[in-house]
Amino acid sequence: MVRKRTADERRRCAEENGFNDDDTDVDDEPVPREALDYTKERCSGPGGKADQYIKGPLRKELGLSTATRPKKYLTLENYMYLEKQLWQNDGYDYVHEAYRVFISGKLKCHVFTPARLGEISEGSTRRGTGKGLRYKETVILVAWKDGEPELRFSLKREFAKAMHDKEQQRPTHLLYEHLPGQPLVVNPMLFLLAICLAAGAFKNYKTLKEVLDVRPPANQRYWVLEWSSHVLDLPVFPEVSVDGATNKIQTGNSFNTQLKALSIRAGISPVTVHSMRREALILATANGYSDRELMKFAAHTNKMTLTRDYLSSITVVDGLAGFLKLPLRSDQAEDFRSMTVNRNPELLQSLPAKTHDQLRQREDCVAITKKIDDLTLEISCAQKGAAARDLKSERGQLYEQRRVLEEEESNRIRGDQERIHPSERKEKVYVDQHRSRFDRLRHMMPERERLSVTLFCVAPMRGPEGESAIEDLISLVKNNCRVAYEPSLRPLRTQCAMPYHAAGRCQAQHCGVDMCPYCDVEVER
């Protein structure tokens, strides 16, 4: 039997192994540590103390509303309304036509992937960081599909929600070119390729023909089209000025505003990026993917999130056919999700003149207008400086208050607007200037006029219609939008086709050359 060691022997053995029993430098202060997931959920998650405080005492103290907005779903039908409005009916004058291309391209990134707003654009929680979808988070390659070359595009959601420390779990989504039987307007590669070429993003390819001529090597199934080094940190969807695309990423708030305005012009109640995300996840669930694949696709860390927050209350389970033992259907629910956007093709785009006049005569609006007039007079008399800036800031707030009143009245009028079936209408439909503007001006915009036809052709991207559409999209992104003129007014052999010149001095320093502002060529005297 082994002899039991004494206390001195145990102490000596511990000292030999590096143990130090000197506790004079031990700090009695508690050491903070990371809370366990269970504790976090209890304290700050749904049903936790903070949640109970907000929904209980704080709600009563501040009079917080508990109402929730109804969920909307951007189904395929609703998505096509947006695209048709954007390319066939829209007379809205963006600061630059590049925005029209970027909006359509960004719509596809959100519709075909469940990416959140702040994962493509710059989110409000990361304002000023420039973080969003950048070229270095994307890859484009050419591969073979049924014996034909096909462009494929991958985008990594580098800034996925709640995955800042889980790089390997951030999903990467794939978009591709080959979409048989579909119109060109739904082809994501058509728009992404145009955006990349307009930005000069490819390292070794500058023209559309050069990109479409690329084939994978004989001993390889694919070939990566490398990005130029100067675009790696640039956003795929940048902010646009009157001079064209900038190097600054578009903010999520800006895109949300554009999406809301486009929805109203298309005759549907405003949709958000989350409307697209819900529909994408519902369709992915219906396609029979496993729970793990769906969690990866949605960038969720909790498998209950999808069921609790995203799946529609409109169930796709066909109880009728199941009970009667008929073939099951899965198409009966989509129309009910489509109707959540309350489409009205005749939705008012602005306040009727009578309603607008009544609003301007209301006491609250009259008071705001009087304050604006008084401040305008004070500003005209004030000297430049801090005082003038303060007055202008105050006037800007009043303008915003008046705009909010007009928007509230517009929403009320739209909510009360009657929807009449076309077959039951007895009088001619009134078409306001916002709906008729594009038809009146399309002959002066050759790219827009061609795209209104080619984008809705069922054709391959590598056909004549597809190549024509890409070239026109590139032109919209790159062309100078400061002055738009008809082809008949373009310079002929460097001479202005105008019957006369409107001469103006060249803006270059120490330059006295007379220039025609219509064609930017020198005026001959």
Automatic annotation (TrEMBL):
InterPro entries found in the cross-reference section: DNA_brk_join_enz (IPR011010), DUF3435 (IPR021842), Integrase-like_cat_sf (IPR013762)
Q: Which UniProt keywords apply?
A: DNA recombination
Q: Where is the composition biased (Basic and acidic residues)?
A: 1-15, 30-43
Respond yes or no to whether keyword S-adenosyl-L-methionine is given for this record: no
Which BP terms in the Gene Ontology apply to this protein?
DNA integration; DNA recombination
Pfam families assigned to the protein according to its UniProt record, in alphabetical order:
DUF3435
Location of the region described as Disordered in the Swiss-Prot/TrEMBL record: 1-50
Which GO terms of the molecular function aspect are on file? DNA binding
Regions of compositional bias (Acidic residues) in chain numbering: 18-29
Q: Provide the protein name.
A: Uncharacterized protein
